[in-house]
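Shapes recur. Our protein:

. . .
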Amino acid sequence: MTIKEKETEIIDAFGNFDDWLDKYNYIIDMGRELPLIAPQYKTKQYLISGCQSSVWLHAEYLDGKIYFTADSDAVITKGIVNLLIGLLSGQTPDAILSADMGFVEKIGLKEHLSPTRSNGLMSMIKQIKLYALAFKTKHE
């Protein structure tokens, strides 16, 4: 499935909720579903700077695609990172780098987060794209 197709699914899923309390609960539920990151990647080396909460992100390059695992010490942040890696994991570096992440605006996520969480969201996206750039450069 392409990133655009996955974004459409995310937009549709958030469209099922009338208010932001329900959307927050949905994000929290997504956090509970986040697959556990391997303990060896829950170190300072994999910590994303710029997030209010601790967020660890690991990426692996297999057969031309990047696969992400992550964790956080905050349940809402776990949900946000699960949303991002669900969208971008299993995609090529080029697809990740060209993703405009328009769903963030369309579902109103950025405007409904605190400024520090919004900065954290942008830091997560930036780190994911940096991994994609590194793998693209290494494997060209």
User: Anything to note?
Assistant: Residues 115-138 form the longest helix (24 residues). The mean pLDDT is 92.
